[in-house]
């Protein structure tokens, strides 16, 4: 199961993924995240506190979003990553591409 909550915090667009980002739900994440970005055109903060699981497809979804917003000069920040998910970002060196802010 996966849901994506979207909040406009003023200076940043907050995306709150809940559940699992895997091969079944990554397309939904990409579609909803890009639509939200297109409506607001600002830096994104992904609050991953309720993100329980990410597989390689989910990582691809994050990369897709990052590349999409970079075309307009914006950034993607991620906060509250579960330690196991953060480890996945570190192993794949994605922690160098994303601005990762506090842990879960």
TrEMBL record:
Annotated Pfam families: STAS
PROSITE patterns on file: STAS
InterPro entries according to UniProt: Anti-sigma_ant, STAS_dom, STAS_dom_sf
Signal sequence, start to end: none
PANTHER family: ANTI-SIGMA FACTOR ANTAGONIST TM_1081-RELATED-RELATED
Recorded family membership: Belongs to the anti-sigma-factor antagonist family.
Record-given protein name: Anti-sigma factor antagonist
């Amino acid at each position: 199961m996966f849901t994506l909550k979207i909040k406009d915090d003023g200076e940043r667009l907050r995306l709150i993924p809940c559940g699992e980002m895997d091969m079944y739900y990554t397309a939904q994440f990409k579609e909803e995240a890009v639509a939200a970005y297109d409506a607001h055109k600002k830096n994104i903060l992904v609050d991953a506190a309720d993100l329980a699981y990410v597989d390689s497809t989910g990582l691809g979804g994050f990369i897709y979003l990052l590349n999409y917003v970079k075309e307009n000069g914006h950034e993607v920040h991620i906060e509250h990553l579960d330690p196991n998910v953060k480890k996945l970002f570190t192993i794949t060196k994605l922690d160098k591409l994303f601005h990762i802010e506090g842990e879960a």
